[in-house]
Amino acid sequence: MIRKQESVIEQLVKGDKSTFEKVFHEYFPRLYRFAFDFVKDRDIARELTHETFVKLWVSRTNLDPSSNLNALLYTICQHQCLNFLKHKKVLLKFQELHQNGLDNLEAQSEILNDYNFNRLDLEHLEKKTYQSIQSLPEQCRLVFELSRFKNLKYSEIATTLHISVKTVEGHITLALKKLREDLKDFL
From CA 1, how far away is CA 90, in angstroms rounded? Predict the structure, then answer.
C-alpha cells in the first residue's frame, strides 16, 4: 500500500501529482484486469482504466479523506465499464435495426427487379426516384449519392465529408425511409 489511505486521499485533494502517480502505478494493473474481465478488449480496457484515473483526478477536490481509495477506484472503473457496455448495447441495437432496414431494402429491390414493367412505368419510376432523391436535404442527398452512385463505403464518405460514420448511417437510413415512402406505389 502506498501510505495510509486517509493520507493518500488528503494528498490527492491537495493536488499532489506525485501521490497521484504512485496511486496510478499501484492500481492501474488491477483496474485494467478488472475492466478487461468485463469488456474483453485490451485497448478498451486500457482506455477505461485511464478514464478512471482522469475522473479521480478531476473530482479529487470532492473526495472525502475518510473514503476507501480501493473501493472508490473500483467503483469509478465499474461505472466506466457499465457506461461503455450500455453504449455498446445501443450501438449494436442501432446496427441491428440498420441491417434489418438494409435486408428489407434488398428484399424490396429483388421484388422490384422481378416486376415486369412496361416502358412507361419504368420512365415514371425513374422520374419519381430522381425527384425523391432531389427532395432530400442537401447533406443527406450527397451522402446517399456517394453511397449508391459512387459506391463509396460509409467510412470513405465520412472521411470525404468530414463527418462521423454514424452520421453517414443516419443519412442513409433517412434517405432510404424517404425513398420507401415516395416509391410505395411502385413496391
Answer: 39
d(CA 160, CA 186): 33
CA 78/CA 72 separation, integer angstroms: 10
Query: Could you tell me if 157 and 150 are in contact, meaning their C-beta atoms sit under 8 angstroms apart?
Result: no
Helix then strand then coil, in percent of the chain rounded to 5, is 80, 0, 20
Q: How far apart are CA 36 and CA 45, in angstroms?
A: 5
pLDDT in tens, 144-178: 999 988 999 999 999 999 999 999 999 999 999 99
pLDDT at 118: 55
The span from the CA of 113 to the CA of 92, in Å, is: 31
Domain positions in the chain are 5-87, 115-182
Cell 466506466 sits at which residue? Answer: 80
Which CATH architecture best describes the domain 115-182?
Answer: Orthogonal Bundle (1.10)
Question: For the whole model, what pTM was predicted?
Answer: 0.49
Classify domain 5-87 at the CATH topology level.
Rna Polymerase Sigma Factor; Chain: A (1.10.1740)
The 3 state secondary structure assigned to 135-172 is CCCHHHHHHHHHHHCCCCCHHHHHHHHCCCHHHHHHHH
